[in-house]
Amino acid sequence: MSVTLDSNQWNLVYNIFSFGLISMLACTVYTLVSQARVLPKYRNALVMSSMVTFIAGYHYWRIFNSFGEASDGFMVNVSGDHGSFNEAYRYVDWLLTVPLLLVEVIAVLALAKEVSKSLITRLVPASAAMIALGYPGEISSDQNTQVLYGVLSTIPFIYILYVLFNELTKSLERQPAGVAETVGRLRLLLIATWGVYPIAYIFNIVGDATAGSFVAIQVGYTTADILAKCVFGLTILKIARMKSHAEGMAADH
């Protein structure tokens, strides 16, 4: 099975993959060289952020290559057979990066050890379940299967957002002056960025594979990844720097 894109659609997908790749690599470098600009207690959060974007960058390189190899002119092989466009790279990426994203948020909040451990033991398995349940629906061509696994994966998805939103809200009163506002925006960024994923998934369900649905899915997922990994990671860095300065670190770092 193949979808035939017009030249604008093909170029859009090609360019969004390229943009996703360079965004991940640039953010990896920036968060790595920013380690010295925060106190040691917040550096784990930046390490996690660098790992997230590095892993995503590698997978975007594979996605980028897979798109080129699956293309014959403007016709893209999406059959799932050998040589077709490989959507599985996204799910392998998410299986690794989503737990790290969650740990990254917990690390920058610098919560009590018991609270951090409790959050990690609840959220990491939930994130693995979310990704594992979403994949069968993503690769299926049966609409009922797509809907079933879409609903099942949404359950841990909502649970993760609910727990994180509540924990970020509870942490506001413990944040230094000026930091609470940024942490408050982080809650909204979390909802906004993660909310793009199910919207993109819906384009799998609306009917048979078409050029329009293929483009919408790839642009949607890539945009969500850039927001959830790069923009989110840079916000984590901002919070870490603000908290470091509030706790006595020189402002010129």
TrEMBL record:
SMART domains: Bac_rhodopsin (SM01021). One of its GO terms (biological process) is phototransduction. Keywords: Chromophore, Membrane, Photoreceptor protein, Receptor, Retinal protein, Sensory transduction, Transmembrane, Transmembrane helix. The keyword Transit peptide does not apply. PROSITE patterns: BACTERIAL_OPSIN_1. Coiled coil: none annotated. GO terms for cellular component: membrane. The chain crosses the membrane at residues 12-33, 45-61, 94-112, 119-135, 147-165, 186-203, 215-237. Gene3D superfamilies: Rhodopsin 7-helix transmembrane proteins. It is found in: Membrane. InterPro entries: Arc/bac/fun_rhodopsins, Rhodopsin_retinal_BS. It is a multi-pass membrane protein. This is Unannotated protein.
